[in-house]
Design goal:
The protein is an alpha/beta fold and about 500 residues long. The protein is built from 13 helices and 17 strands.
Amino acid sequence: MQNCENSPARDYELMMTRRQLFGKSALGLGTAAMANLLDPALVKGQASSRPSTGLRRGKAKRVIYLFMSGGPSHLDLWDYKPKLKDLFNKQLPKEIRDGQRVTGMTAKQKNGLPLCPSKYKFTKYDNNDQGLWASELLPHTATVAKELCVVKSTFTEAINHDPAITYIQTGSQIPGRPSLGAWLSYGLGSMNENLPSYIVMHAKTNFAEQSLFNRLWGTGFMPAQHQGILMRSQGDPVLYLSNPKGVNRQDRRKQLDALSALNHRQYEAFSDPEILARIKQHEMAFRMQASVPELMDLADESKETFDLYGDAAKQPGTFAACCLNARRLAERGVRNIQIFHRGWDAHGNLPREHESQCKDIDQACAGLIKDLKQRGMLDETLVVWGGEFGRTAYCQGNLTTANYGRDHHPRCFSVWMAGGGVKPGITYGNTDDYGYNIADNNGEPLEPQPSKEKWTPGTMHIHDLNATILHLLGIDHKQLTYRYQGRDFRLTDVHGHVVRDIVA
């Protein structure tokens, strides 16, 4: 083949790659990257894609969200309940259950609802409050107790995985709403023109993983540029980012220029803002072709850094490697970074599963906080850890002192935060002696149990969690709205309360 710009064969080759990329792949490079800063010239005279109210300077500039998908057991990790040991295999009292719905997996089990104390030793660590009880499963995370704000009174209404994850990520159990990361992108924009403002990673695990749908980091009814981008650990870090075989960077630039001209004509004819978003996506993808390879290359990281995160950080796709990449993304101006670590759904054989899961995440969580702090980034980075709900105080399946399972429990569970304007080294909220209900300071269940309709001091509904995250980033959750089908939507729906007790 002639290596000539005017070669008919070369032109045909380029046309075929166009068909492959923008035909078979449907969205082409646009699927790869949703940008956040469009060239002002492209939107001159157009309404802003950013809210004009509800913004102020927040303490945090970015969020790293460590999501433990499946529901980690608060009773085996953070919520120490020594009195349960004396109640081993006794039935959960009816007044404690208080008519709460249980799943079909335990509702009719022959052994009833036998109480199940944790088999793990808890140690009280110094913090800046009254101390923090932490399980022996999390020895590394416990070393940063003075940085953690552990909330024991988080709650939700959703009792099954997909509705619960959808709820905490989007503010609704019904799919179709924008995700937290999309709201942050919409509200705050990007700090790096060469990378998306919202990146998602899935960490490897050794156990069965619940399905995670891309709507969990999607835009819902918002413009496409606020979409989260999934960063993969194998193959191309971002799908469709690499040029097809036979196409070099100069070829790609010519293709994008021609495509941009066509899209501008479409926009002039139809005034569809998604056309501008499409242009922006293609341009971001082009820039990412240079920025992503450098990002994923860990060769310049020091031995001391790998010592912080552990040897697993050298293995692509591990939770430790994802945490290290999260710090690198934060350094480069990515606004919202989310790591999903699946496999926490321990209905049976919880000790085996949680021991493995904690081995995956423990050192990396501590390493991330230490790394951010020594680089002077922790004050401006909000780190959030938690799942969609907790696990029950009663056992699912056969109960022994060495082995047990736990069912889903939305009524109370533990979440921790660090950095980004959160009070360091405190615990917030209480649960009863069973770890079943949110309780007052004396350990007595609150009557009635808190609800999303009205905030109860000492509690944190997931709407309150999201309202507080937005607040720490300088956003008023009541004013951050997006109008769709005649209604002003917001992440917290018509609920949510900023938990100022945990704000520094």
